[in-house]
Amino acid sequence: MDRFGLIGHPIGHSLSPRLFTAGYAGRHPYDLIETPDFGEAWERFLAGYKAINVTAPFKGDAFARADWKSPECVRTGATNLVVRTPEGLKAYNSDYLGVRAILEPLGRGTAAVIGYGGAGKAALAAAEDLGFSCTLYRHAEIAGGVAADVIIYTLPRFVEGAGRLDCAHLLEANYRDACLAGHPGYIPGTEWLLQQAVTGYVLMTGEQPDAAAMREAITGSI
User: Fold this and answer.
1) Which CATH number covers residue 52?
2) N or C: the chain end with fewer CB closer than 10 Å?
């Protein structure tokens, strides 16, 4: 039986097992492979798993170990999903894929990405590849406010200027401690979480997950 899992540290709070179980009605096992040692986590993956999700602080390490990197991984220099195949270890970035799925129906125009960690890099690459005219802001650069057709807020907390965001659509990455809910055109981090999971799980298993069951699992756990 194929096994799947998540590496990173700490990951005890992760919703990934719940989402994966909901998406496939429990047909596939999904484990938290928790250790602060990347080498140990990687060896456990190679010894017993078909595919893994990767979270902090291992996204760059996993990217370096992959035999093949998808274009979005190369753009961001990080992976959050690695699959074992007959051709070797293949790395993807489902944050990029999830953000792209959210932005695609919104038309085109200007986009502002606030924050340039892993999530910000993925969001910037996705928006650029869709044809948005993009501007990147680090947290200290938004004190006077930001205006764009779409704003993607990837900072983990509310900072000065976050209350002066002018846009038609506002996507926030944080789904546990959302700080911008209530803004007109708000798209919550749970949607980002769902879309990256749906697109990522297809790559991991080759099977389409039950997105409605995954959405219900998120709603019942936040």
Assistant:
1) 3.40.50.10860
2) N
